[in-house]
Amino acid sequence: MKILKPKILVQKKIALKILNLKIAKLTTFIVLLFIGNIAISQTVDVDGFVRSYGGVTYKDGDFAILQQTLNLNFEKRGEKIAFKANPLVYFYNADSLNIGMREIYMDMYFDNFDIRIGKQQVVWGKADGVFITDVVSPLNLSEFLLPDFDEIRTGVIAAKLNYYIGDGSLEAIVIPQFTPTVRPDANSIWYVQPDFPVQPTFNWSESKVKPSIENSELFLKYSAMTSFLDFEVMGGYTWDDNPMMHVEKVIDKSTGKPVLSGLNITPKHHRLTVAGASFSTDIKGVILRGEGAFYNGKYYQTTDVKAIDATVQKNYINYVAGVDFNIGNVKLSTQFIQKIILNHDDLMIENKTNNTATFMARYSALRETLHFELFSYVGIDNEDALIRPKVTYDYDDSFSVLLGGNVFVGNEEGSFGQYSDNSMVYSKFKYNF
Amino acid sequence: MKNILTTAVLLFVIVLGANAQITGNEIVEKAYNLPSGEDQSSVLKMTLQNKQGSQRVRVIKQFNKDFGKVEKKIMFFQSPADIKNTSFMNWSYSTDKNDDQWIYLPALKRTKRISSDSKSDYFMGSDFTYDDLGDRKLSADTHKLLKEETVNNVDCYVVESTSKDVEYMYSKTITWINKETFVGVKKEFYDEDEDLLKVLSIKKVEKIADFFIITNSEMKNVQNGHSTLIELSDVEINTSISSSKFTERMMMRGM
User: Fold this and answer.
1) Nearest residue on chain A to B254, alpha-carbon basis
2) Between 3.40.50.300, 3.20.20.70, 1.10.60.30, 2.50.20.10, what CATH number should domain B5-253 receive?
3) What is the count of structural domains for chain A?
4) Could you tell me the end-to-end alpha-carbon distance of chain B, in angstroms, rounded to an integer?
5) Which among B112, B115, B247 has the least Cβ separation from residue A167?
6) Are B249 and A164 a contacting pair at CB < 8 A?
7) Average pLDDT over residues A162-166
8) Nearest residue to A158 (alpha-carbon basis) of A236, A92, A228, A231
9) Per-residue pLDDT, A96
């Protein structure tokens, strides 16, 4: 019996998991059927895609990802009102179902202004693949930076007002409930185990921000598209999407000599105030882009023994400068990104500056049915990189096949080099409807 | 600049009072500069067909308006599914200033300024380059009247246009223009080796709101057998399209 008990427990757990999965599947089916019926009866536009995505690490041949996706867009647009619902169903491996509503909102159109209420993705700025003034919608980094950029942002429940003046627009956003960055699970290949000198104890009681008027996030942006220049000026009273780890050391003095015996870690989000701007312009066929922001109130970790909870508050700036241009039929783009911590001191764990570059080359052949693309992040300080070549063939207008690679190279201390074991080749089969 | 797609029309709009002493440059200039209405909207269907007969179809709703010094055009892609709700906006200027172009990708939720430098790129995999569709400035070519000829019972001027840029993708084009109406009838495109590359045939011209509009035309690549059929429908002219139609707001919101 002593041996059987755990077996029974395990079997019960598995049975429960299967039951939950079946319930989730059934719920999904019912919801989709319900929405589908409404869509048909209300002549709602329905489109979306089905995608099969598999990736295998070439170091050990493990399947790093086996994902089946159903993306649905339900839209109805009128002269004065519109709505959109975008449920997304991810089925991982053979036993994990992830259902989400990426967006669900209503639009109201007036003569000079529009209002959007509901869960929505907001994209700001002019940079590609980096997020500087694009701070309204948090990121889902559960698969690092690998998801397509339309899938890496998470929706936020918000009220958005756009007021239009000529070619310009004033945009105001209120987010009543803060949503943090989604981090990889502890069993994910993208999870980086923090290095602690002793076993830490985590206190998660302060890790969530209670939804309230006081804790709301506010964003404001003015943007304009003119014949000379496109630009945006923005400000935000937000929360840091990444929690700060407040560390309290437990010292054992029982032996007479103080010894570090434990760490009490309290993850906590802090307010952040952001002000920034971006622009893009065309100079003789070359697109110049720039974006920068000043962040006030960011917490960093420090080794300074006098610091409270091993943290220190500093301001920082982050900016990008980039160009897009063509050589023959090849479209090229490159960006330089720099982050600078102001009033930096040597006891801080993070370096004063962080320099990154991106490169992109794209070429289409066979009447835009065969696409070659190479995108790369390069960590200049650590001499590491993520190189992402891919080839896409559009078998017809609705079906495409993609073969690609995610190659992590360089110093394993760097943001990209640390994933050198995760370099992979992958394929995506996608049907649009 | 004249618009993409429907603006091929401008080459073929009617003009009266043709002059027997007319030069090649005057013929093309008159056709190019003829009024085509203050604004226009239409649905454009583009059918791409390869040598084996396999077809791909693109459908676009488009609006354009002449603001005097600038002509603005906005296009909303309706099919195929993978580009549905993508929009494209072009502002072209009467001066030598390059066009301004933006594209809105609904998946990325972002309007991006793009380079208008790629006039020789083919539009959406079709047999039309952006230049073929009307993006090319008159002053970019030298126009010479070759002869007068009757094609399909229509008396035409035959004008040869040669690029001032020796690197240009066409060594020359030859255009047949109706002597009476100045509506185009046919155009041949020659590659860098001076071999015939493509032939544009005007298949149907309709009179809409007192303007002659080409509603059916075909571009055939004679070297590889690929062809593109362009059909215009729901054409409306001078309906006082609001200037607010040509803004980022509409690019993101859709039609």
Assistant:
1) A77
2) 2.50.20.10
3) 1
4) 24
5) B247
6) yes
7) 94
8) A236
9) 85
* Closest residue in B to A399 (Cα–Cα): B82
* Domain coverage including residue A432: 366-433
What residue in A sits closest to B226 (Cα-Cα)? A367
pLDDT digits (tens, 9 = 90+) for B49-87: 999 999 999 999 999 999 989 999 999 999 998 889 999
Let me know: does B146 contact B133? Beta carbons within 8 Å: no
Phi and psi (nearest 5°) for B126? -85, -175
Note the pLDDT tens digit of each residue in B14-50.
Answer: 333 444 578 999 999 888 877 788 999 999 999 999 9
* Position A431 in a domain: yes
Nearest Cβ partner of A433 from B81, B117, B118?
B81
Enumerate the domain spans of chain B: 5-253
Q: Tell me if A220 is assigned to some domain.
A: no
Per-residue buried b or exposed e for B26-42, using 16+ beta carbons within 10 Å of the residue's own CB = bbbebbbebebbebbbb
The ipTM is 0.86
Flag if B253 and A325 touch (Cβ within 8 Å).
no
pLDDT of residue A351: 95
Q: Are A284 and B100 in contact (CB under 8 A)?
A: no
A173 lies in a domain?
Answer: no
CA distance A63 to chain B (A): 27
User: What tens digit of pLDDT does each residue of A11-55 get?
Assistant: 555 555 555 656 666 666 666 666 666 666 668 999 999 999 999
Q: Which residues of B touch A398 (CB under 8 A)?
A: 80-82
Q: Is residue A415 part of a domain?
A: yes
Cβ separation A329–B244 shorter than 8 A? no
Q: Cβ–Cβ of A123/B110 closer than 8 Å?
A: yes
Mapped onto helix, strand or coil, the DSSP state of residue A302 is: strand
